[in-house]
Specification:
This protein is an alpha/beta fold. Helices cover 36% and strands 10% of the residues. It is globular, with a radius of gyration of 25 Å. The structure holds beta-D-glucopyranuronic acid (BDP).
């Protein structure tokens, strides 16, 4: 349904959110404006604190009244805004409000993590520069802030950590806090609380304290004064996100203290104000022989020792946002510690903003192993920047949308989310799209992440990426002096016998970190799911797969399947062309060609490289590589972000 002139009549929007004798609050006004633009009928928005089904503030009810008008109720104004957005979403198919629907979010905290630096760059960001214009703030407010906030509100995202986890101490300087306040003031009416990533050594960097030891009284006072200063400016400030003792960041271990001691010190400073600490479990050191085990080894023994306003934020997998990883065994292993999942929306390891990779299936897979009820919150590393569409390309928005929808309800199906998103964002007039086109586009989205897994690193392979930019293949990569656990060979371990990382009881025994039933499943090469085979096993090239093929042949077929799948995206896109919103076809068509070319590059480079070890020929039906391994090994991409809608990145950078 299109809000055209004839439908564009908000006849009687009654906003009584704040009581009959008070003017409606700002969130309610935003909801009204949104409805006026997107919903053709009459709606009333009412605060309701008596409805027991609305068990948390963000919950809402959407109902169709006898006269055909719609009524949205919620205990909070933010809930009314979410309800208004849900009404638009739910009526998108047939133009009518649902009879009576109640929605209660799975988590009270649904937060985006921006990896934005104060110099305007975005770590692992592929959507332009930072949306936060630190140089202009607090005086100038970019209109993109409100656009961003509305896009978050549409899917119920209610928190934003503004800056990179590799945090500059300067974010806590008084000058920057004024800028943060200006952003927080824009986000607040959209139901979004503001959070900051903090550098653990901030007291030393900003005020020359001799230490950042969390047990030092002067350090504790510094943090508690800083919290007071922040809350004076931003009374609903959410709290801190911390990357400590990881990849060179300072942390409590530098002072002989534990992660719990560090987190609890910050928690104590925030507690009087109701703030929280999200403490990341993303730590690894070359100390243990298997990087995949390290977060568990470090954190599991600390179960029960964190303050109750600390949440442990754990990446979905045990290594680092690979196209496919098994879930991190830390989930569920710390029953006395609140935990949250960190998912990555930005496509650091999935083709940046050049490849289509719809991530809802990946997150659904995660939630099939990790009970959503065992978590207290979900975070997503944002794919937002200052590009016109905010996400670098218009289809990448599907992942921002899907993240928000799954943070609200992790049991939503990827297909339903895809249908909602395409109706809202892709088609000019969803009702006029033929079923065959709609189904083909949906199938393309649903197949896309698996296609990336296939053409980059199938069967449990991981981290074959080029050093630095994580875009192209470099299974051969060798950087003199680099930590071994940053190099692909550490992970694939290809040799004359076979390929894969032996994490079984006979190898690194990482498998023992999983519950018994999964331990048994993963540890045995015959029962291990084949999508995780080379994650857990160093399997012989001749290992017989369930298809009857050898491992080598299966690997070749998987790589080739990935290429063929993305080849198939191009005709789907052509068929969808007449129905897309303006500019969307043009933005994606060259990217799909790049993706198809990159998929060949991945397949050919990896297979040529691994063939040196397997010494087996490509099976029948697999396209012969168009270049030699030596040629692929010469490819150099620039380290900086590249947005590259061209026929082949490979040709550009040889
Ligand atoms: C890795 C990224 C790196 C991040 C790090 C993190 O390559 O840029 O700083 O994770 O999550 O995925 O801290």
């Amino acid at each position: 349904m299109k809000p055209g002139a004839i439908f564009y009549t908000m006849l009687a929007l009654v906003c009584v959110a704040c009581g009959a004798d008070k003017p409606a609050g700002e969130s309610c006004a935003i909801a009204a404006e949104y409805l006026a633009e997107h919903y053709p009928g009459t709606v009333s928005l009412d605060i309701d604190t008596a409805d027991t089904a609305l068990s948390v503030p963000d919950a809402f009810r959407v109902r169709r009244e006898a006269d055909g008008s719609a009524r949205v109720t919620s205990p909070s104004e933010a809930g009314l805004l979410y309800g208004a957005c849900a009404l638009v979403r739910m009526s998108a198919q047939d133009g009518t409000a649902p009879l009576d629907t109640v929605e209660v979010p799975a988590y009270s905290l649904r937060v985006l993590n921006h990896w934005d630096n104060l110099d305007g760059t975005v770590e692992r960001g592929y959507a332009g520069r930072s949306i936060w214009k630190w140089d202009e703030l607090p005086d100038k407010i970019s209109p993109q802030y409100a656009d961003y906030a509305m896009r978050c509100a549409e899917v119920g995202i209610n928190g934003a950590v503004l800056n990179n986890v590799n945090a500059s101490p300067r974010i806590l300087s008084s000058d920057y806090l004024e800028k943060v306040k200006a952003i927080a003031d824009v986000l607040r009416p959209y139901g979004i609380r503001t959070y900051l990533s903090v550098n653990f050594a901030s007291p030393m960097a900003l005020d020359s304290l001799p230490t950042a030891d969390p047990l030092d009284p002067a350090v504790r006072r510094w943090w508690s004064d800083k919290a007071d200063e922040i809350y004076d400016l931003i009374p609903d400030f959410g709290g801190f996100l911390v990357k400590a003792n990881s990849e060179g960041q300072p942390g409590p271990c530098d002072f002989g203290r534990s992660h719990a001691e560090g987190a609890n010190m910050l928690a104590e400073a925030l507690r009087p104000h109701g703030g929280i600490v999200m403490w990341r479990a993303f730590v690894y050191s070359p100390a243990d022989a298997d990087r995949a085990k390290q977060a568990y080894l470090e954190f599991q023994p600390l179960d029960g020792s964190f303050a109750d306003n600390v949440i442990l934020q754990i990446k979905n997998g045990p290594v680092d946002f690979q196209p496919r990883e098994p879930y991190s065994p830390l989930f569920g292993a710390m029953p006395a510690t609140p935990q949250m999942a960190e998912l990555q929306i930005t496509q650091e390891y999935l083709g940046h903003s050049n490849h289509v990779a719809y991530l809802a299936p990946m997150w659904q897979e995660f939630f099939s192993y990790v009970d959503p009820a065992s978590l207290v919150a979900v975070a997503g590393v944002a794919n937002v920047g200052d590009s016109e569409c905010l996400t670098g390309n218009p289809v990448a928005d599907a992942n921002w949308y899907a993240f928000g929808r799954m943070a609200w309800n992790p049991r939503l199906s990827p297909a339903q989310i895809a249908d909602e998103w395409t109706a809202r964002s892709l088609y000019a007039d969803a009702a006029s799209v033929p079923d065959s086109v709609r189904a083909a586009v949906r199938d393309m989205l649903l197949a896309s992440r698996e296609a990336v897994v296939d053409y980059m690193m199938p069967l449990g392979l991981h981290h074959l990426f080029a050093f630095g930019h994580h875009y192209g293949p470099e299974p051969w990569c060798d950087v003199p002096g680099a930590r071994p656990d940053w190099l692909p060979r550490y992970y694939h371990r290809a040799d004359r016998v076979g390929i894969g990382f032996d994490r079984t009881s006979g190898g690194s025994n990482a498998v023992a970190q999983y519950p018994d039933s999964l331990y048994a499943l993963f540890n045995n090469i015959d029962s291990c799911p084949e999508e995780f085979l080379l994650w857990f096993h160093h399997a012989p090239w001749t290992h017989r797969m369930r298809s009857g093929r050898t491992l080598w042949d299966e690997l070749c077929y998987a790589y080739d399947r990935g290429v063929r799948t993305v080849d198939g995206f191009i005709p789907v896109w052509e068929a969808a062309r007449p129905y897309l919103k303006p500019g969307v076809y043009e933005a994606m068509a060259p990217r799909l060609r790049t993706q198809a070319a990159d998929a060949r590059w991945w397949r050919d480079a990896c297979l040529l490289y691994f063939a040196q070890f397997s010494r087996m020929p490509l099976p029948a039906g697999i396209e012969a590589p168009s270049r030699t391994l030596e040629e692929y090994m010469k490819v150099q991409l620039p380290i900086s972000n590249f947005e590259c809608p061209s026929d082949s990145l490979l040709n550009l950078y040889r």
